[in-house]
């Protein structure tokens, strides 16, 4: 009996795990945005708890990828897939972490009304959520064109971060400004901006998985 | 002729590359601290330029690791080394990025006197630099005990970040506070805190390389 069916099965299992982890990460960022809008602090606590699940998934996928490399010694496109899995989970785990960091900040805040004062935070959140959704969809569906769009959207998010920063600075320059909340919102914007970066990384790993190149540099 | 000498040579080359990249990253963070102290903005520009070199090293090491996996199909301890190389370069590259981000902020700042006003920034910089140095030394010398110390030092850096945050908030609450510089210093502190996290990651990857476990979880 050939070892191939088992190998194929293991590759499929790895893909299923990645999809599962991707779903958890997407949920985390969606829930974070809901907390923004509803100030539902029980949900915020759930995000922090679910982050442990995401961390566990990272370890499981790393373990599976390494074990697969060790036993099956994949080559070419399969090796690219397995080594990509090993890298992409780090970005997904980071997105989960940062969603949890945002949730944690939100539970300690009283000035959630600033959400509307700082106009570009909702925009940032919406764009970042879309980037994460598209990056994971692109990775799972092997959609290079969608991945390209995510990379372009990152410029929008970076630009929005600078607008939020300017807005926070303007608010902090007024007398009796809510300094603590202002700082927390700036941190939240920074986390959103980083989440966008990780979505881009996921797209670059898809590029590598499909072409062996990242940003036109041949890796394998 | 056995393929082993070539394989050993390639593993050695990979190790040399990692040491070279580690040296560049350490230099980046050392130079960043010098800019803090001397306001030497030419040096700040050099850090940003050198970051490109660090990014190139990341691509070279990734490429070498993947190519080595593909051609030599390493097993056991060798596979752990090669797959660790693939992960650890991401953390090193991020440290370089964040040093460059700090340097960039410093070149645009006028309020460098705050360096002394915000008392805990120099402490943070000193501790973070030590963590990066020790993490890379531990990884290169396979020193698990040193790696353990780095992980403990991270609590100190996290604590210092919270102190800096409190100091910045206190300053921003005074009339006519230098809001822009305050915000920039908070960002710098955040970058230093993240650098500490990446140093910890490097130590965890050493743990995996030597034991197949991270935080007592068996990965391989």
TrEMBL record, chains A, B:
Record domain PhoU: where? 19-105, 121-205
Self-association and partners: Homodimer.
PANTHER family registered for this protein in UniProt = PHOSPHATE-SPECIFIC TRANSPORT SYSTEM ACCESSORY PROTEIN PHOU
> Which SUPFAM superfamilies does this one have?
PhoU-like
Keywords attached to this Swiss-Prot or TrEMBL record, sorted alphabetically, are: Cytoplasm, Phosphate transport, Transport
What job does the chain carry out? Plays a role in the regulation of phosphate uptake.
InterPro entries given for it? PhoU, PhoU-like_sf, PhoU_dom
Mind telling me which GO cellular component terms the entry cites?
cytoplasm
**Does the keyword Transport belong to this entry?**
yes
Q: Which GO terms describe its biological process?
A: intracellular phosphate ion homeostasis; negative regulation of phosphate metabolic process; phosphate ion transport
What's a Pfam family in this record? PhoU
- Which family does the record claim for this protein? Belongs to the PhoU family.
Q: Where is it localised?
A: Cytoplasm
Q: What is this protein called?
A: Phosphate-specific transport system accessory protein PhoU
